Every structure is written in structure tokens, then in C-alpha cells.
Amino acid sequence: MRKLIMLEIKKFQLQKYWKNVMIANMVAFVLLISMNFTEEKFADYQTAFAAVSVLVRAIFTIFTAVIISKLIIDEYRSGSIALMFMYPIQRKKIILSKLIIVAGFAFSSIFLSTIFVDGFYYLANSLLHLVPGQLTAEVIATSARDALVIAAVSAGISLIPLYFGMRKKSVPATIVTAVILVSLTSSTMGEQTAFSFMAIPTVLAIVGFAAAWLSFRNIEKADI
Question: Helix 137-157 to helix 91-128 angle, to the nearest 10 degrees?
């Protein structure tokens, strides 16, 4: 399985995507800083880090849909997946390697980017004094824990667009589903979002893994 994953990464040159991840992080950082010069100023570090979480999750949920489109949807549309299925390797292993890459990218990009943008925001605040108060060890620990949990459930949620993309082998359907998911999970009710109640994203994560299974449950018998 490890060799399959490495071959897929090399085949699609996915390592180059980390450059785009860094660009996306800088865009998120600039957007976050700009919010401090509007009426939506942050009251403290906790509020600022919560905004980072929402922004990063939104960006990389859609980014992951792009990865899904490249690794899976496009291969089905072009028929190149049929060539891969001619190899003496179980189809399920081939697909599983792709799903591991997708979920792994979602988890690592969201978790690492949240830590990265949080860190840069702290450095910027040290110079610009954007929010009052001190960054306490409690806030750091809570933010790190939340980042880890949110990245984990987001890895599952990011698989939901795969199901809709596979129905018509459609890249637009994959991307649009991701945008809808971001809109639904990031919209606020008062000061709360869907991620304020971890039961909701946890259920969505389970739905995501179930959607991936439903998309390929008959892969060994299906005609391509």
C-alpha cells in the first residue's frame, strides 16, 4: 500500500501542491489581518484563532475537492483508470491508496495550516497590537487540540464531494458540493457554526467515509 501511495504521489506530482498550500496560507493570513481593520475586529486571541480555523477549513475543503478531481474523477473521465485496473493489483487497493492520499492531504493541510496561520498571526500581533491581552498556555493548548480534532473530522467530510462527483464523473459537481459543504458548516447562527457542536461535524465525517465506501463498494465487479 505504501508503494502504491508513493507511486500516486509521484505520478500526479502532488508534492508540488504544497507550494500552493503555502500560497493559500499567506492569502488566509492577509485576509485575517485585513479583518482587524474593519468592524469585525477580534476581541482576543481565542476569537482570532477561531476565525483562522473557519477560514483554513473552508479553503482546504475546496482544495481537497480539487485533489479528488485530479486523482479520481479525471481518471474515470479519461478512462486512464481502466489501464491501472489491468495491473495485477486489487482494484480496491488502488482506490484505497487514492482515498488515503485525499484524506491525508485534508488532515495535514488543515492541521498544519491552522498552526502556521495562528503562529503568524501571533507574530503580527506582537508588532501591530491587533488584539488585546496575552496569549496564554491555556489558549494555545485549546487551539492545538481543536485544530487536531477539526482536521480529523474534516478529513472525513472532505470525502463527501467524491460521492456526488462519481455519480456523473463530474469535476464541477465535486467542486460545487465542496463549496456547499463549506457554506453550510461555516455559516453562523449568532456566534456559533456547525463546528461549535462537534456532534454535527462528527456525523458528517462518518457520512464522508460512508460515501467513499458507497462510491466504490462494487469496484471489483464494475465495468469501467
Answer: 150
Query: Distance (Å, rounded) from C-alpha 10 to C-alpha 2?
Result: 12
pLDDT digits (tens, 9 = 90+) for 79-92: 888 888 888 889 89
**8 Å CB contact between 90 and 187:** no
Each domain of the chain, given as residue ranges in start order, spans 2-216
Residues 6+ apart with CB under 8 A from 221: none
pTM of the predicted protein model: 0.91
Q: Which three cell numbers stand for residue 93?
A: 487497493
Helix, strand or coil for residue 189?
Answer: strand
- Alpha-carbon distance of 48 to 29, in angstroms, equals 11
Tell which residue, 26, 30, 35, 36, has the closest CA to residue 131. 36
**Hey, is 73 helix, strand or coil?**
helix
Report how far residue 165's alpha carbon sits from residue 174's, in angstroms, rounded to the nearest whole number.
4
Of residues 43 and 39, more confidently modeled: 43
